[in-house]
Design a protein that fits this description.
7 helices, Fic-like fold, 64% helix
Length: 178
């Protein structure tokens, strides 16, 4: 049943993201919480759309997420960076940074990965790029370069991976048009 709800919820969250883009709505903490609430709807209503109130560790990662009481300030800082400092960056770089820094904060008790991938694709779609999919065979590399970025602030390998996946996505979309 949970897998069924996850699929339905993911579809609803995608539609919400598409609606944000169509209506030229900016990324905000409110919208991030709404995306997360849709992802966990009827799976974990207690935590859906709410920042975590306990500390967590990420299995298999060297990075340790910040303390739960730091999340509000870190999310505000993320929004300021996204809206100001990262504005001049290429959309693929901005998408990768938004995704990476969001996951680094790990603001929710569950659903951070799904939410972050929707944020990444929000940024890509908003700027006219097709969405990317991180395939199962890419997952180990994805986790490795993401953990490297979180522990060293070296985002170059993660941005390269996102760029490679974007090129693959564009090729796929173009092949459909042929």
């Amino acid at each position: 049943m949970v897998e069924h709800l996850e699929a339905i919820n993911h579809r609803e969250a995608i539609l919400f993201v598409e609606d944000l883009i169509a209506n030229k709505k900016p990324l905000s903490e409110w919208n991030i919480k709404n995306i997360h609430a849709l992802i966990l709807k009827e799976i974990d209503n207690t935590n859906a759309g709410k920042y975590r109130s306990e500390n967590v560790v990420i299995s298999g990662a060297k990075h340790i997420p910040p303390k739960h009481y730091e999340i509000g300030d870190l999310m505000q800082k993320l929004m300021v960076e996204y809206q100001n400092e990262w504005k001049a960056f290429h959309p693929v770089v901005r998408a990768a940074l938004t995704h990476g820094e969001f996951v680094k904060i790990h603001p929710f008790i569950d659903g951070n990965g799904r939410t972050s991938r929707l944020l990444l694709n929000f940024e890509l779609l908003k700027n006219g790029y097709p969405p990317i999919i991180i395939k199962n065979e890419e997952r180990p590399k994805y986790y490795d370069v993401l953990d490297l970025a979180h522990t060293t602030m070296n985002y170059e390998p993660f941005i390269e991976l996102v760029s490679k996946l974007e090129i693959e996505s564009e090729k796929l979309w173009l092949s459909v048009l042929d």
